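Chapter summary example.
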Amino acid sequence: MPAIVIIGAQWGDEGKGKATDLLGSRIDYVVKFNGGNNAGHTVVIGSEKYALHLLPSGILTEGVTPIISNGVVIDPEVLFEELDALIARGVDVSKLLVSANAHIITNYHRTLDKVTERFLGKRQIGTTGRGIGPAYADKINRVGIRVQDLFDENILRQKVEGALDQKNHLLVKVYNRRAIEVEEIVTELLSYADRLRPMVTDTGLLLNRALDDGQIVLFEGGQATMLDVDHGTYPFVTSSNSTSGGAATGSGVAPNRLERIIGIVKAYTTRVGAGPFPTELHDESGEFLRSHGFEFGTTTGRPRRCGWYDAPIARYTARVNGVTDFVLTKLDVLTGLATIPVCVAYDVDGVRFDEMPVSQSDFHHAVPIYEEFPGWTEDITDARTFEDLPKNAQDYVLAIEKMSGARMSAIGVGPGRDEIIVRHDLVD
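The structure predicted for these 428 residues follows.
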């Protein structure tokens, strides 16, 4: 059975958890393959709302095995806090599995993340300060701590000593902070070992065997395409590959097994943190989207920057990921608008760009070229078929589908798990 990948096709917060939940009863494994607790999914089940950060949203679906694979960086304290919060609400978390090769976020990663961001001043990236970037930097520099290291105290101590030998010089001599003691880090990390040990396995082997046996595996990307370290709006990006290719390197499952690529897009666009955002609104329209869409970060609580739908971005993300299907979320947020602009191209110093400019400077200066569509006033939250939507809402969806490079297979019309229209099956 081929694997399915769900990725964000804008700058994040598109509603990937909702799409995962839509597929939940039909899948066997849900895999978080990149990022850490720097992003979040909000999943609404009945009257209950769950905010997940490090855990894959499949942990809320009965019968699904949730996996944190090797491409993720894990803060053990956050992991156990999230698990305990779910246990307190009666959620069974006993099936969670963790890759032995996933890297660990330590206290010195969090410290470095915060002090270096402050040091940048007006050139700040807008990180969450949770140590994600420094942990990935250590991974690439080959001085990282992996989950399996927590079960060998001698190896763990050697690795922490090696990492802090350089970092303490930086903290003390550049940032005027106190040095971090090796024993402090080792003691903390060892305290997590006993609880973590039963969860740890060779997740790559497990997932390949599951696919060989005809089971359905869903790969759930953190962050989004436009925040991918290679393909996003660099340097205002995350520190991992949040595109569909990251599902292969981040899990140990070969690319030729990733057959269905589902991109999640909002009916408008949002972004958190610094960086270019051509359709961003600084007027009452932006506030309308923010307030009606409840656009505040799941992880940080920060107000999200809001703008109109950007078709060139959708085409770009469809191409980079090989998107086979889009899931369009939050169409209901647009209800009540007289007209709805859609960015169809950019103007850069008098030159029209129908696709995303390759030059970062050009993209920073891109001015959106809009096409306007008539809005609707009817409540669409009860719509369960495409034909239930008002004609103007149908026309809007069909128009952006034609512009975006892949079919709109599902449409979210409200925050609940059942408030969605399925036009095309996302599994078969």
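To summarize the output: The chain has a mean pLDDT of 92.
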